[in-house]
Every structure is written in C-alpha cells, then in structure tokens.
Amino acid sequence: MSARTELPRWVTLALMPALNVALAFVIGGLVVLAIGESPLEAIQILMFGAFGYGEGWGFTLHFATNFVFTGLAVALAYQAGLFNIGVEGQAYVAGLALVAGLAVDQIHWSVVLITTTLVAMALGAIWAAIPGYLQAKRGSHIVITTIMFNFIAAAFMSYMLTQVFSRPGANSETETLDAIGRLPLLREFMPFFGRSPVNITIFLAIAALIGVYYLIWHTKLGFKIRVLGQNPNAARYAGISAVSIIIITMALSGALAGMVAVNEAVGVQKRLIIGYVGGYGFVGIAVAFMGRSHPVGVLLAALLFGALFQGGQELNFEMPSVSSDLVVIIQALVILFTGAMSEMFRPALERLFIRAKPPPEKAVAPAPPANQPKSSGEQGSGQ
Amino acid sequence: MKPINITAAALGGLALAALMTASAVAEPALIYDAAGKFDKSFNEMAFGGAEMYKAETGNDYSDLEISEDSQREQALRRFASRGANPIVVPGFTWAEPVAVVAAEFPDTNFAIIDAVVDAPNVRSVLFSEQEGTFLVGALAAMKTETGTVGFITAFDFPLLQAFGCGYVQGVKQINADVNVLQNFIGTGFDAFSDPNTANEIGISQLERGADVIFAAAGGAGEGALRAAAEAGKFGIGVDSNQNYLFPGNMLTSMVKRVDVAVANAFTDQLNGEFTAGTQIMNLESGGVSAAMDEFNEALITDEMRATLEDLTARIISGEIKVHDYRSDNSCPVS
C-alpha cells in the first residue's frame, strides 16, 4: 500500500468502468460515422430502445435476467479460480427441464416453475460437475474440458431433439407448454412492460444474486471457495479439500447456468428448440469479468449487456444501414474495453489523483492496516 | 450510469418519435432467420427475391436481421404496426411468432416459408425438396463410375433428412446397387457456416470412393464442392444455382426457389392478389428443379437429359411418389 497509492474505491469501482464503457461507445460511434450515419442519433436510438419505453425496458430486463444467471455462473467458478467456459453447454443441457415441465403443464404454472427449476439446476449441475471432477481428480484442465463439453452438449441435444423429443411433423422441437402451465409474464400485472417477455424468473435472478453474495462472503463454503481461488497452496495447508470444493463449486456454477432454461426456454419460448441458448453463456463470461466476479458488478454488467442486446436490435430496425454485424462490433468493443483492457485508465487516474491529493492524504490519514477484510471486488480487479 | 442513460433516453425518445412518424410507409418487409441475411443460401435467396421485386417494380422494401429468438414477435409486431404489408419470413422457426402476431394484426398479410400457419391472413409456402433432390440423385447415379456417391448436410434435422431421403430415392431409382455415403458436418445451425469441415468430409467421402457429392449445407457446402472439384470429381450444389462455382465439375444444383416465393408474395400484394393458405412449390410449379445451364451442359449427356425429363414427367403425373422424410420422420431407403 505504501509504494503504490491506492485509488479511492469509487474510482476503481465506478469511474473506471464508466470511462471504459464511454470509450467503447466513442469508438463504436466512429464506426457508425465511418458508414455515414450519425453516431449521436445511433446512441439515442440505442438508449431509447433499451430504456425509453416500457416494452424496451422489459426486453432489457429479460436479457439481463439471462446474463445474471450466466454471469453469476462464471463469477462463482472464478472465485474458486476455475474458468468455466462451459456455461453455454450447461444451459443447453438444462433445457431438457422443459420436457419435465411438459409432464406437469396441466396442473398449475407454479408446479411447472418448481419442477423445471429443480430439474434445470440438477442437469446444469451434473453437466458442470463432470469437468469439475476431471479437473479435481484427473488434472484435466477445466478450460479444455468445459469447452469440449459444449460440443458434447450440442451433439447430445441435437440428438435428443431430433430423435427423442421431437414433435412429429415439426423440425426438431418439443411440444409447446400448455397455456395452464406457462409462467406469468410481468406485463400481466404491470402493463408498463408492453409486450415484452420479461417474466417471474427475474425474481429468481435477484434471489440468485443475493444468494451468491451470501454464499461467497458469509458462509464457510464461500470462504473455502475464495481461499482455494486465491491461493490453492494455502487452502491445502489449511486442510481444505480442493477436490470437493472444485466439484461443488462447478456443480453450483452449472446449476446457475441451468436457470437460463427456466427463463428462456420455459418462460419465453415455451418449447425447446435447437440451439435455444443462442450465446447467452458466452456473453456471461464477459458479464462476469466486467462485473469483477462480484454479484453487484454482475448485475450492472448484465443490465448493460441487456441494454446493448435490446437497443442494438432497435438500432438495426431504425437504421437499416447499421447491420446486425455492426451492433455486434459495438458489443465487442464494450467487452474489449471493459474486460480485456479494463486497467487501461489506471495509470492516468493514479497520476491524476496522486497529483491532486498527496499532502492532505498523508497528513490526515494514517495508513490503515493492510489486511482489512475488504470485499474481493477490489481483489478481483487486480487480477 | 443509469441516470445519464435515462436523460439521454428521454432526449432520444423525442428525436425518435419524430423519426418514426416520418418513416411510416406501407411497403413490404422481409425478416431473415437466425442464420442472417448473407448466409449464401436460404436467407440470401430470400433477399434475392426481395431485390428481384425491387428491380421489377421499382418499389422499395424493408428488411431486418434478428439476433435472438425472443425478438421474433417484437420484430413482426414493429413492422406490422408501422404498416408494412405483406411481411415475409423465411424459416420454420417463425411459425409460432407469426401465428401470434397475425392474430393481432388481421389486416396485415404474412407469408411464411417452410412451415404452415393456419390463419386467414397467412400464406404458408412449402417446398417439395424431396422431388428436386430425387432428380439430382438420379443424375448422380447416372454419372458415377465408381458406384459410390456422397451426400453431405449440416446436421441431423428433419428438413435436411428430407433432402437426403429424396436424393437416395433418386439414386436407387436409377441403380439400386449404387452406394450412398451420408455424413453430417456438425450438430447445430452453425454447421451451415463451416466450409472447412465440409471440405474435410468431402475429401473423406472421395477417399471412400465417391465420385459425385451432393452438398446440401448452405454456405458450408462450398467446401465439399471444392473438394470434389479439386479431385476432378463432381459436386452438386443446393438452394441457389451454384453451377458457376466450379464449371466443369458441377454436375448440377438442386434449386429451391425461395426467391420466387418472396417475390411472389410481394408482387401479389402489390397487385391486390395476395392469397392466404398453403402453397406447394414443387417440381410441377417450378419451385424445385435440377439446374441446367452453360456451366454443366457438357456433363449431361442426351441420354441423361431424356431420363431426367422422363422422371420429371412421372413425378408430376404422380406415377413416382417421392417419400417425404418429414411425413413420418423416416426414410424407406438408405
């Protein structure tokens, strides 16, 4: 702490990400300018599309719900030092929960919700625990195995949907959930949300955010997960079993990933189709890193990506010359600047704040003990 | 960050409201399927149909690519509420959303390709792909010298199985002893854009003795066709007429006139002749065919041509019934 001046917390946690997002939008704006459209108008359309009216909000929140689940899945595993790239496949396999939902869709939507949630979480957990086991017991690297499991999931689900659960006469999709068993959409109580697909699963996402926060920082298991993630050797000397922690963490991560099935397949599409996950799992990686693997950060990053997905579609609609590929470019720039180059502004900000502050800081504040139990939001940022 | 967004959004909203009222015009709209506009195949043909309409009538159209499945209804509704008419969507995945939105906008006409939506304002266009692939299968069986032909498609999927099943039936019609190698490129829709794997599979089929390869895999198919061309063997293209890709090594292409379906829907609306209900685009109506042009005429002998015409006539008359895989999810031959 003495050699390197710490930036104030609000700078690392709020100002730096904000600057990064702003920079991404500036560069994105230049790209828009290059194809001969007005960047200001583009950003207006994007913002209006995402937040300007109820239906836009609804879509933003719907996408954000998916990103909260996938982002938390990546973040939780990362707390244990595990890089779970298999969220896409875990969510895909968990989609089979819809078949369980079909079996009970004549009773009540709450039964469908409970059944599909439990089955989806179990399937996601199993699909993630296998790479976890291979990592813990056999030393197969989790990055490689989870990527491979994405491919296996794609092949497995393609087989299941084409050969096992396919509705006759349809192209590889299951039956559709009966109206009795469909999850309530928020618009049924709040007309504000227009015709958007945001549904009650959003409350499960909020619960998951709180639950992961509580698990990581307020339980013994969470402590073990963090110790393992920050120093595997220390964990071993402390008597923490890396094998069980890795498998449990991966299972929990996969269970979170599986929740995408409840929101997207059960809640919105109401049937299971080929490739239903559509990349939410991979975006979850960006969401987790941008959110510094902290539930609050994941929430904000999920909202940002939800807004980009919804606003991007609006932009594509209103500005036909802005193709969907360009929207992907803007999204990629946000990932680049907030994820890969997130520390870019640190030296400049340090210079700025050191020049502005040194005398009063030294005079007033005696150096606090270095090992304050700070939230690992900051610890994550150093990685 | 959020307060800033809301202010910007409020400002943007005002500008956008002005923008939207200015651009409300009743022109036809086309919304592509998830593979995107330029997939060198199905969606691109739909785009070609819209361009055909534009060139012929001088009228404009709107189009849109969607990026997420949950945006389908939203996209349909936005075009409908803006007065677009008709709204054409290529791809069976549109069936649910079209059924929902068509009921909300009874005065707007919709057309869906490759699926049936039963509503008074929806035209459902179905193709009898199996009849077209039957013909190219017959050609392959007549051309092969090794007694082995290949079929490569994207992944195990009823629509694609229907292509393969028709092809095998065509082959067996000519010579029941010809062996058909069948391979998938991948396990999902991304396989349509994987020409490298298609190329590898093409090479593998050539090594196993195939000398004619039918690649029914959208943009990926080109990889397999290249493998055949480089080995001095023959390829068969799909969807659009791909004979020009490797002149001299392209036996034919199984053409599926998605473009005609799109252009028809647009033009019918313009002329006040739009009809709902199911339209079958088959061999008889020219919806599917085996492409003949200057690039492959040297490869097709008079005898082959005569046989092809004979088969065409017999399919149209109903004498030959080509089994549709989708009717019972199985194929009588393999």
What's the layout of helices and strands?
The complex is a heterodimer of chains A (383) and B (334).
Chain A: H1 9-34, H2 39-52, H3 54-79, H4 87-94, H5 97-103, H6 109-138, H7 142-164, H8 201-218, H9 220-230, H10 232-237, H11 242-269, H12 280-290, H13 295-318, H14 324-340, H15 346-356, H16 358-364, H17 376-381
Chain B: H1 2-22, E1 29-32, H2 42-57, E2 62-65, H3 72-81, E3 87-90, H4 95-104, E4 110-113, E5 122-127, H5 129-143, E6 148-153, H6 158-174, E7 179-184, H7 195-207, E8 212-216, H8 221-230, E9 234-239, E10 250-256, H9 258-270, E11 277-281, E12 288-290, H10 302-317, H11 325-328
Parallel strand pairs in B: 1-2, 1-3, 3-4, 4-5, 5-11, 6-7, 6-8, 8-9, 9-10
Antiparallel strand pairs in B: 10-12
General description of the model:
The complex is a heterodimer of chains A (383) and B (334). Chain A contains 17 helices and no strands. Chain A is mainly α. The relative contact order of chain A is 0.19. Chain A has two domains: 100 residues, no CATH class; 244 residues, no CATH class. The longest helix of chain A has 30 residues. In chain A, helix 8 crosses helix 9, helix 8 runs antiparallel to helix 13 and helix 13 packs antiparallel against helix 14. Helix content of chain A is 71%, strand content 0%. Chain B is globular, with a radius of gyration of 22 Å. Chain B has 334 residues and is an alpha/beta fold. Chain B folds into two domains: 126 residues, Response regulator (Rossmann fold, 3-Layer(aba) Sandwich); 154 residues, Response regulator (Rossmann fold), CATH 3.40.50.2300. In chain B, helix 5 packs across helix 6, helix 5 packs antiparallel against helix 10 and helix 7 packs across helix 8. Chain B starts with a helix and ends in a 6-residue tail after the last helix. Chain B has a six-stranded parallel β-sheet with strand order 2-1-3-4-5-11, sandwiched between helices. Helix content of chain B is 43%, strand content 18%. Chains A and B meet through helix 2, helix 3, helix 7, helix 11 and helix 13 of A and helix 1, strand 2, helix 3 and helix 11 of B.
